[in-house]
Design goal:
By secondary structure, the protein is an alpha/beta fold. The chain has twelve helices and ten strands. Keywords: Decarboxylase, Lyase, Pyrimidine biosynthesis.
Length: 270
């Protein structure tokens, strides 16, 4: 499936802009999963099955799997999502950024090994570091633009020919890198004014928006700044607030309720 087609269908058919981030931390798992060799897969699969009809996409963060030598469980998780919940896009949050043959291998890892539908990429090393991902025109390439962390301003607010660096990135991606229509940008919910500026520069390009929930981003301000005229255009990510909403054997039910509450809060401002 083409990532953008699947994302657009999920926005409409599920009436949801919610992206659930899959950041598994075994130390926070319910007691009945502790010590299981497949605990990460079991935990994440249960979250996925409980929330898939409520989301526009899932976003597994690769570091949470790799740190526990669970890359095989990440592969199995993405396969599970595609098999059990067809049409649900998976964004691999890897923030890769390298050049030449190394970038080519990262693209193979994301799209051929893990079979992700999109990947987050750091554009700091320029166009040739992004080309290997763009060579997969049916896959989403979501580039860091205005990130949700406070330190992002150290570089992203630097003046570049009369534009802030994040504005330059947004314009560059929208005007020069998006020939296949498969690019998106990461813009944090903690900076709604910058979301509005990126929307102004990029038209209806999809924006992946971290920072609501545990990071404190404001849902109403995010929607006012970033939604398109159709009321879509956003993948609003929540991770910890949904994953760890419950601590017992009913953790998946608690996650579903948290996802419903978050989706409904988002939709109230669409």
């Amino acid at each position: 499936m083409h990532f953008m087609t699947a994302l657009g269908a999920a926005w409409q058919q599920r009436n949801s802009l919610l992206c659930v981030g899959l950041d598994p931390d075994p130390a926070k798992f319910p007691a009945h999963l502790q010590g299981r060799p497949d605990a990460i897969l079991a935990f994440c699969s249960a979250i996925v099955d409980a929330t898939a009809d409520l989301v526009c996409c899932f976003k597994p963060q690769i570091a949470y799997f790799a740190a526990h030598r669970a890359e095989d469980q990440l592969e199995a998780l993405i396969e599970h999502i595609h098999a059990r919940h067809p049409g649900t896009p998976v964004v691999l949050d890897a923030k890769r950024g390298d050049i030449g043959s190394t970038a080519e291998q990262y693209a193979v890892e994301a799209f051929e090994r893990y079979k992700a539908d999109a990947i987050t990429v750091n554009p700091y090393m320029g166009r040739d570091s992004v080309d290997p991902y763009l060579a997969y025109p049916d896959k989403g390439v979501i580039l860091l633009c205005r990130t949700s962390n406070p330190g992002g301003s150290d570089l992203q607010f630097l003046d570049v020919g009369g534009l802030k660096l994040y504005e330059h990135v947004a314009r560059l991606v929208a005007q020069d890198w998006n020939a296949s229509g498969n690019c998106g940008l990461v813009v944090g919910a903690t900076f709604p004014a910058e979301i509005a500026r990126v929307r102004e520069l990029t038209g209806d390009m999809p924006l992946l928006v971290p920072g609501i929930g545990a990071q404190g981003g404001d849902v109403a301000a995010t929607l006012a700044a970033g939604r398109t005229a159709a009321g879509t255009g956003l993948m609003i990510n929540s991770s910890r607030a949904i994953l760890y909403a419950g601590k017992g054997e009913d953790f998946a039910d608690a996650a579903r309720q948290a996802a419903i509450d978050t989706r409904d809060a988002i939709n109230a401002h669409r």
